[in-house]
Amino acid sequence: MSSMWGNLLTISIFGESHGPTIGVVIDGLPSGHHLDLDDIRAFMKRRAPGRTAWSTPRVEADEPQIVSGLFEGYTTGTPLTALIQNTDTRSGDYSELQIKPRPGHADLTGMVRYDGFNDPRGSGHFSGRLTAPLTFAGAVCRQILKQHKIQIVSHIKEIAGISDLPMDTVNPDVAAYAALADKPLPVISDTASEAMQAAVLDAKTNLDSVGGIIETMIVGVPAGIGNPIFDGIESRLGSLLFAIPAVKGVEFGDGFAVTKRKGSTNNDSPVFSSAGIRLMTNHGGGVDGGISNGMPISFRVGFKPTASIGREQQTINLKTKTAETLVIHGRHDPCIATRAVPVVEAVAAIATLDLLLEAEGRRPLAQRGQSN
Amino acid sequence: MSSMWGNLLTISIFGESHGPTIGVVIDGLPSGHHLDLDDIRAFMKRRAPGRTAWSTPRVEADEPQIVSGLFEGYTTGTPLTALIQNTDTRSGDYSELQIKPRPGHADLTGMVRYDGFNDPRGSGHFSGRLTAPLTFAGAVCRQILKQHKIQIVSHIKEIAGISDLPMDTVNPDVAAYAALADKPLPVISDTASEAMQAAVLDAKTNLDSVGGIIETMIVGVPAGIGNPIFDGIESRLGSLLFAIPAVKGVEFGDGFAVTKRKGSTNNDSPVFSSAGIRLMTNHGGGVDGGISNGMPISFRVGFKPTASIGREQQTINLKTKTAETLVIHGRHDPCIATRAVPVVEAVAAIATLDLLLEAEGRRPLAQRGQSN
Amino acid sequence: MSSMWGNLLTISIFGESHGPTIGVVIDGLPSGHHLDLDDIRAFMKRRAPGRTAWSTPRVEADEPQIVSGLFEGYTTGTPLTALIQNTDTRSGDYSELQIKPRPGHADLTGMVRYDGFNDPRGSGHFSGRLTAPLTFAGAVCRQILKQHKIQIVSHIKEIAGISDLPMDTVNPDVAAYAALADKPLPVISDTASEAMQAAVLDAKTNLDSVGGIIETMIVGVPAGIGNPIFDGIESRLGSLLFAIPAVKGVEFGDGFAVTKRKGSTNNDSPVFSSAGIRLMTNHGGGVDGGISNGMPISFRVGFKPTASIGREQQTINLKTKTAETLVIHGRHDPCIATRAVPVVEAVAAIATLDLLLEAEGRRPLAQRGQSN
Amino acid sequence: MSSMWGNLLTISIFGESHGPTIGVVIDGLPSGHHLDLDDIRAFMKRRAPGRTAWSTPRVEADEPQIVSGLFEGYTTGTPLTALIQNTDTRSGDYSELQIKPRPGHADLTGMVRYDGFNDPRGSGHFSGRLTAPLTFAGAVCRQILKQHKIQIVSHIKEIAGISDLPMDTVNPDVAAYAALADKPLPVISDTASEAMQAAVLDAKTNLDSVGGIIETMIVGVPAGIGNPIFDGIESRLGSLLFAIPAVKGVEFGDGFAVTKRKGSTNNDSPVFSSAGIRLMTNHGGGVDGGISNGMPISFRVGFKPTASIGREQQTINLKTKTAETLVIHGRHDPCIATRAVPVVEAVAAIATLDLLLEAEGRRPLAQRGQSN
After folding, report:
1. ipTM above 0.90, yes or no
2. A48, A113, C213, D96: least surrounded by Cβ within 10 Å?
3. CATH for B4-360?
């Protein structure tokens, strides 16, 4: 199941960058959830291209058309399908792409995997554009999680080596973190944000690109969600996070930093609080043995610099079987991490809702006619 | 599916640390593979406790008893099951564990998840002991992969902040890396190895523990294996690697380091070589768009310091609902990373064989009576 | 996974009877297959309403719009998606349906399952209309199977107790059986066909409906496809056949008739023939131990009489909590079995291709530019 | 996944007829269920060989040894594993089996599927003996269902064409049906039972075998369990029932009989009763649109006559490539249906519990220390 995922909540992503329509089918949603379409649009807009000075000038409305699974504004519980039209496609001559594979892209691997039959235009099914339907699915799950008092917040922790202030993963100010989404970049420190923006613009000017790290927290997950061995929270989230294009690393809690620590400073000790049992620290990122411990589930995702750059690069010519240089024209973001924040939140929402359904069953949240 | 995993190749892990028997069922193996049991034993021995000055004194023979799926020395293709007896269990009084949860363990989360009914003795199903059957499954898959000219090699890249020399992920000396398994620690630099060992012993002396990083390469995977979107190599491997107890981070290729790079220095350019198309560098770790590109698949796994330490720690008393201190007696490793190398290789082998079967079908490797 | 199915080949069905669009995503198709769209249309037409004197007057073009997974006429190997617009929907006032559940329908069960939030118009997601995208998926798989010399043929074995001549499941005349699709009813005996048609028209006249049995053969499946225990051919096919609305029974080979036989007359003995090993008889329907034996895989599927009938029926009023009578107006077929033949063939094709991919891997059938 | 099955509740069956150990891993069980081992033994005894005058003289204690997932008598929620030792194996010379395939068995198909490497002794993994661990798994699920007031009852509806009295599927006397298990044959009519027994003994005397039909009801399933399209109750149950060796047909409710009916007589009308909404009749077998309607879920399973018979049969010699005759010596039942009743109930219990967990989540049934 390459482009389908899930257990009780399953999603099926389809489409190509330059095809007429991309979309997603979400099966297993609880029925009776009143979808707030404005909220979905707002969430998807955070991913959409064309918002910043540097982002790709490709303009897509990314207006999801819901063709099934929603009746009179409420989820039916049967598959919910959203179609998104590709409007601003300029395929032009893509034959060069099939001859001169772009470094850092799936051009070569896609060609081998599909024996030359995959759609090469704009990376086809491998395009970052496929994260639009993924973000839609996450926007839906996120709304349902909110009714369970579960919220997902993020910031850009690092771009081009420039770090934001750290998030508090023990007593997070969730509202403040949620408000970061309204800033030009979701960064806590305005100084850091300006430096990051300068670095991105500088890369753009130099026909180059930069990488970055996104840090996310899932706040409000009750203790006891998840499973040991193969189906722990980290396994499920990890599997989905590595499905986001350009992700090369995933770490939970303090992640790789804990490898340099002693057990005596890394262990999170439990303590009784007015809110029940809590941990005094949260180095583990809210998960022990694959199962939530009630603390915020925190993780970081590392994105490589955008592979598409305007500089001349070394590649091969598959026709002439010789070395060749390549200059990629066309539209691309100099820093994919700046647009990937809602994508990371989306897959976090999808994985969390799937785990929650497994624990709680599919009891509906609302009754028809009640506001929710 | 918590303790079952896989698609065409499926494994089912069962047992508890202090139960009579742990084991694994492997379904979907190709038939006709002649199992080399000595090789399996040798591989499992790399994980077994009691090999070094510092490792837990719990002694387990870890002799797998194969009760199905093997006939006259060859895999039948039907489920292969290995049972491993737990012999050296000293449960003693575990009631304290149910009252005073150990920091950094799944004591609390397991209790909530299973409403107090999970086996608490020696961490029960959450125990690192469950990696023994996992290692067995990996040992079997590894043998089959070898016949496909696919090899998996590793070293301990870091312990307690002390780094080994880097691996060459472009033109690896696979035989030399494979030979690291015979050293006291699988470390390239003897100087680094000695410093690591000293750090581990020092932690042990101080009733403390240290973390570490394992680096692994899967060499020989042909280009074109894997899938886009949800079922890429990184997703599958990531999902399995996070299933190993104590793993807090996973990164592919240069991992988080690429987030600080420019695209112009990070992109791996293709080149024609005598061995066909190769990449000049391997920052991406052998995977583009979820699919193998023919270069070694390289990744790093970060292990936290062992949670069980001899020092007094802060915890709670679930009975009296008060704060309390805890001193963990019993047997534990001061550095789990030193024993986890074959476990990491095992899950790499399992994931790789599953992906290979998907691409190649289940054509057998051998005919009865032929040596292989 | 309610509306998704499969292992290597996965399909995801979505939509409601009166929603704007229904459709299907097919993931895992081999790349490089040149789709014959006319053949697909012709196959789907066999299911489409409005072809016979008695069938529902609802007219739907059922023209599938392929929006992904097809590039320059060839399957790409990434998800192939077909959308079908619902054009002839007359929802009118469906509020009665939510108050007076129709006997024999999923009105009540759907209401309970989805807490009253499912789309009730025209049975919503439970509608037989959802077999249109299923038939599309089968049409695609059928084409690919044909290149592997696997063909699927059927006849209506029985309607209203009137039997067709039996099929030869040992040495079938596949071309002749395939040609049945061009007849008004796919029935071998014209006399039986006329009697069946009369019975259907009679039921229609009497505002009633009749049931029937479809018999299908999958010819050309090589021996050795399938699996023991839970994943045998009968289990996979059975699971999919029971997913077709109105199916109440499935039997393989001689089915329930064998329960009255002796082993000495029921066992199929092998024999050497010019075509290799064959069985002298085919009471078992081509499957032993879940695995194909090389004989035609034959099975029969029993359809209940259409639940929607024009006669007054007894039901309840969910609002007043009293008994009530119901007269169903609207469009419906007096015999669903007459249109279900391609649906049965479709699911047979889907299951067979999935099993074949598992055995053979995903090697492509063709190279770009070659005709196939 | 050939020998693994399930969604939230997953089972993994392993072993061969003449291997040392067969068994089952059950993952996803709710924690906190106090297992009644005597009840499990009693249930398994109904399947065990050697109970009747005609059944195979192979004597197996079939004592399940639970090695994981049970702690202090309660299910832990982690994988529960039962091992069953094969004691009475007399493999002797099985080389003939590999040369002369037995008609009606998986000898040939297994050989082709596994390229000659499958264990041929006593049918290996294809043996009916593998239904012992399946029955164990069902026995566990059945106990948990009973606490949800769900009971599964059966009778032998037909052997050798001799019919038992019909079951009442509208207002069943569950206690009376449950008591049938204590009779020599679970048959309502003693006259029918005697005739059936005579027919079986007659077949045995004549070195032949007879088939039969088992009818089962799952009583107490609340309305609203199950799913539309691919994951309905009939699909799940059908998939598991066809996994039982020798099953050739499955029908729900009145099954194939409804194909001869009119809609006006077949539709089940709802009615208000003191027990809530019920149906006046139950021709549909308790399922509409894949979802339970609250009526007993009823189905019938057709078993072919045992393939192993003492008479001389026609077969081939794979070595000499010539026709040959075969006389099967060894132990076998002249009527498999008489022992299959608990197996059918077992798979019904497994499927029902899986569906129930999906709907209800994994909330435990009991608290430690409470009797249940």
Report:
1. yes
2. D96
3. 3.60.150.10
